[in-house]
Amino acid sequence: MKSKIRMIGIITAMLFVAGCAAPTALPTQETTASKATDTFTSPTAAEVQITATPEPEVTSMPLGGGSGEIVFGSKRGGDYEDIYIMKVNGTQVVRLTQGDSTSFPGPFSPNGTRLLFTGFGLTTSYVGVMNSDGSGQTNLTSLEDVDEGFPAWSPDGMQIVFTSRRDGNNEIYVMNADGSNPVRLTNHPRDDFAPCWSPDGSRILFVSDRDNDLGINSIYMMNTDGSGVTRLTFGEGNDYTPVWSPDGSWIAFRSVRDGQSDIFLMKADGSEMMNLTNSASEEWSPAWSPDGKMIAFQTNRDGNWEIYVMNSDGSGLINLTNDPSDDEHPYWN
Prior knowledge:
Mean pLDDT: 84
Radius of gyration: 18 Å
Number of strands: 27
Strand content: 35-45%
CATH topology: Neuraminidase
Distance between the termini: 34 Å
CATH superfamily: TolB, C-terminal domain
Strand order of the largest sheet: 1-14-13-12-11
């Protein structure tokens, strides 16, 4: 049970707020360790002046048309969080998972046919994959007494990067899309988690408290072999969930600054940081639309968690879910 609490705490760290607990058991099967070690380079961007955008008005008009979909997590079907999918205008909501445990959604594969997720067993979490209609659910990382989660695809769909505690703390691993040949990319006594692969396949973003007080996280970037680690965010912010824009030029992320949690945007080198939401409410979990024009996220500005979308400059807010149950963790297809 302690292991499950630990991963829920770390998922909270990525999606919500930081959590700390004792490490889980050491590895029960061998993995191939990466030859690369964490080599720090000088930061490419000094602390930047943050631009706060005015809080935009919310429109009640739904998005028009479009064949895209957004997957999200919700407890609207029972006591456990399940995975749902809906059209980008908030209609045609379909439940994809149903059982006696929680499942957190992850991103779609590059071709849109499969969906990653973090599943929870009795005591530990695992990386899973399913077809985009919810069929064919498969556990890819079934290590005993080891928490694993936060999966993300490589741009070609051949590999999956994820977070694992098989070494006693959270480290970034990569494996083949069928779960074979796991390779450790980071090797640091502090927690490294929440990886995201760049659209060109050359770099991976992740979150870590390695240079801060315990539980205060910054965003880092590294090469796909684990080398060339570079810190992108600085200052007093607690930064989470970095995601690349489809063209690789921008990074959206959640940051807690001055007691307020907002969706921020910065250039891929850490410069030109700006606050997109600038709201007294909580905003978490940004996700880009495939064309890079919009960002989905979750917010409690209506009294519970709902899925919203906005233009990539923070304008044009639209509430997609508007349900009394909490709706969270959006990913766009």
